[in-house]
Amino acid sequence: MRVMDRRILKSQEAIKTAFIDLMSEKNFNEITIQDISDRANVGRRTIYHHYLDKFDLLDKLIEEHINELRKICESSSDLGFIASNLIIFEYFEQYFLFFSIMLSSSASPTFRNRLLEFIIEQLKNDVDITQGINKGLNKDVILKFFGTAIVGLVESYVTNGVPESPKVVAEQVGILLERNL
User: Fold this and answer.
1) Do residues 24 and 97 touch, judged by C-beta distance below 8 A?
2) Which of 14, 132, 154, 162 has the maximum number of C-beta atoms within 10 A of its C-beta?
3) What digits encode the pLDDT tens for the residues 42-79?
């Protein structure tokens, strides 16, 4: 495993934090590399050293969070729906600002689609259409139905100021998934 210089990590974190902060204040299209540079207190060259442009920065930030969610799902795969959902909703709460901005900004359609793809990917192995409650149903319809419902719930959860604790939401989503998958 490659060890990264702490200065590089510090610069990257400053850039990402500045970018998220700016997205909470401005429309994505209005943000410039200079804005990010000024807010992060790094040179424009430093930003371009790590990212091609603000689109690449956005893409890498989204991918970073999707990958982290993927790791969470992999590490909690032996847990039931309720327990694994709790870990995921705690992650949403921990990175509340990121998720609320991604689901309420001009980046929303891109992020929403990536999140939906990820959720469908995670649910694929849990859908059985050969027996039980879903026997004979179309697997793609089931996956899109539950994937869209979960994305909508996450969107509501983070854009409406987290009305319930992660535990309550995770339990209820887990119960619904256990009942229907």
Assistant:
1) yes
2) 154
3) 999 999 999 999 999 999 999 999 999 999 999 998 98
- Distance from C-alpha of 35 to C-alpha of 19, rounded to nearest angstrom: 9
Contact (Cβ atoms closer than 8 angstroms) between residue 79 and residue 127 = no
- Give the Cα separation of 74 and 175 in Å (integer): 20
Q: Count CA atoms within 13 Å of residue 77 on its CB side.
A: 10
- The encoded tokens of residue 131 equal 């027996």
φ, ψ at 51 (rounded to 5°): -135, 145
What Å distances lie between residue 139 and 24, 43, 125, CA to CA? Answer: 38, 50, 10
